[in-house]
Design a protein that fits this description.
By secondary structure, this protein is an all-beta fold. It contains no helices and 11 strands. A hairpin with a 5-residue loop joins strand 9 and strand 10.
């Protein structure tokens, strides 16, 4: 069993399989105004988790509410997070992108949950008043990598 303390109260964990030359990782929202990308190292022996290492931490307005995050496999991957400042944060996971942040604005109150559909053509965001917004897209090509 491997353990790693990554910050204050964890409110969401999302496993991301290896892709685009990146190792498998965990996306983790914590109530210290951040989300972390944690690399998972396996083997030897094969299939045995041997290390967890924080690759990077990004800023997300998060102190009180149980915010969720999700992963989009579009392009080279994106960490998408809810936030208490009414925005949906989108961070590129592409190598060399320096975790460039973009955001979507529509909600009038804190955004508490985000999710993508299986085809990765819709992003849903939900706020603390129960409103759900659907963001239709074909890809994230309009966002900088």
């Amino acid at each position: 069993m491997r353990q790693r303390r990554i910050g204050k109260g964890v409110t969401c964990l999302v496993f991301v399989p290896a892709a685009h030359g990146q190792p498998p990782c965990l996306l983790v929202n914590t109530s210290d105004s951040s989300a972390s990308i944690i690399d998972c190292t396996y083997g030897p022996p094969p299939g045995v988790l041997t290390n967890l290492a924080v690759r990077h931490r990004v800023r997300v307005a998060h102190a009180l509410l149980p915010l969720k995050c999700c992963y989009s496999p579009s392009s080279q991957g994106y960490l998408i997070s809810a936030s208490e400042d009414k925005e949906v944060y989108i961070y590129s996971l592409a190598k060399g992108a320096n975790y460039k942040m973009s955001y979507l604005k529509h909600h009038q109150v804190p955004v508490v949950a985000v999710a993508t559909n299986h085809q990765d053509t819709l992003l849903a965001s939900a706020d603390s008043l129960g409103r759900v917004v659907l963001w239709r897209r074909m890809d994230f090509s309009h966002l900088p990598d």
